[in-house]
Amino acid sequence: MRHKHLLWVVLCVVTGVFIFSAAPTADMQASNLLANPGFENGGLSPWGKHGGSAEIVSAPDPVYNGTFAVRHIDSSSNSTKYLRQNVAVQAGSQYEYGAWVFIPVADQLDAVYLRIAWYNNSDCSGSQQSVTNSSHADLAQMHSWQEITGSATAPSGASCAQLRLMMDPATGMDPFIFWDDIVFRGKSEVGATSTPTIIPTPTPTNTPTTTVTPTPSSTPTPTPTSIPAHSILLNEILPAPKSIDFDGNGQADSHDEYIELYNPQSLPIDIGGWWLDDADGGSSPYHIPTSTTIPAHGFLLFFRNQTGII
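The chain above was modelled as a monomer; its predicted structure follows.
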């Protein structure tokens, strides 16, 4: 992909043309109880690991937000591997947790998910009392970031929770995955932080319960003029891949170049029929197939071998 074209990817629809060159700002909650949740200190600590190896990476490797992410690599065994961090909790309190994961090759994995192991001891030592698992990652959603979330109530007697980022390799495989922006927080604190400016959130309007006059149930906050409604952002371009087979075809080569789009809206957007193109005089425009949808706050990758954009 020619570098002079990096910031000139154009999305065309019948009603107009949108040009974007900046990635959306991600929100990391101030109430997060984890230390170094996005690996932005450039190291793994205080995260530990159980099996495999872990290394901090930056672009052109996948990074969801900020400068760094972590790559967790299998160690040629079929046992489940995980990264872990201990968090002090209160028995009976509710918590929610989540993480963003990037899966390069799906058929090398049996499962990817989050687990909380509850302990009575304040340093998570001794035998675990019980475990709580999140929903599993969608292994069919390769080459793009996806969020895994869960919620749980700390059981009676628990004073420490160990959050684990679980990777269950398929038999005989040596997979690796990427993790970024992990969250563990008290559920009562949800909503206490500010709303990201690029994604307006309706603000409820207090209405007296005794009146019979119909009133709107919510008043949407103004839409920022910098992001038109139903727009799509150009989130990332990989112009010169080196050693990772991002498209999963078995070879790490120029075909692993990709363009990543991001939907900052709170609803899915159908981009079928749109056009993806670089600057004038470059590659031929790529016509996005009908019914191609980017989920709310989701990502979509277009590889070079699909678009022909170089």
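The mean pLDDT is 77.
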